[in-house]
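As a next step, the fold was encoded as tokens, giving this record:
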Amino acid sequence: MSLNRRHFLTGAVAAAAVPATPLFAQSRKATPVVATFSVLGDMVARIGGDRIALTTLVGPNGDAHVYKPTPADARAVAEASLLVANGLAFEGWLDRLVKAAPFKGQNVVATDGVKTIAFEEEHGHDGHDKHEGHDKHDDHDKAEHGHKEDGHKKHADEKDDHDEHDHDKHGHEGHDHGEFDPHAWHDLKNGEVYARNIAKGLTAADPKGASAYKEAAERYIAEMRALDEEIRAMLGALPAERRTIVTPHDAFGYFAKAYGLEFLAPQGFSTESEPSAADVARLITQIKKRGIDAVFIENVTDKRLIEQIARETGAKVGGTLYSDALSAADAPAATYLDMMRHNATTIAGALSS
């Protein structure tokens, strides 16, 4: 027998000895999933793993408040089995996109179940007009993902009696004028709610992956809890007189409430709002009066306003905080957990020095 013949037979025997890949594994397609913006995209990727094919509409350093969907976005949404959105009027363009696509899959509103912060609850965000610039969200909120708005109307009559609002009970629809702060992910306790909602949605879209999604979510939540303890220790060491932060827009209410801080901002919840000269002047007066010596830039806003405030008050620019979007992969806030850690360490470093 020739050498080549022996090699052929040896290879054939070896190939026959290797178990064939199961047909279902060869044929299973990744579940197509769309997340609306980068923070959610990272969460979905962590929990979904290689069982999903993920499209994130608003990428790193992108501003979801003012985003304009593209035809490619409509195609991705039309083909998706699952759409993951933040809710709370954050994606004011989403209803129109869903209708235009059209979308026929499963929905996840990641904020379902979080303790929302109402517009009237603002804790120290005195530097802006609290009702300016939110009307543009009305189209999205009145019927976000097909939910009814009756719960909100009832809630509007009762809001003075409650400091916190259970989002599951009152709904996230019909929040005319951006009534609730949408930036709920800035509290890691809410991050746990996001993770469980995402795992539940992925399971509905891909039931065979239920155990994988559950296990991934629990691992992720364990990391969130460990980081939460780390941040509490870090920020808890700040003295009472150095716990006030100035940022361009009102994005850190949940962070403030979770870690005992105070945030001031010239803009409202949405970057669509335009601070008036009077708003800025009041904030400058407040900074001088209270001796606030650090202000912060955000990755999704124009830094010129904060630089102006720094010049007029003598405050230093303490660094860049990531509010509504993650950073690029080569920057310090490329994942949700990295973002939370970076923001905390940046604040602690600026206010401790």
About this structure: Residues 25-213 form a domain with the Rossmann fold fold (CATH 3.40.50.1980). Strands lie at 31-37, 52-58, 82-85, 106-109, 115-116, 165-166, 244-246, 262-264, 294-298, 316-321. The longest strand covers residues 31-37.
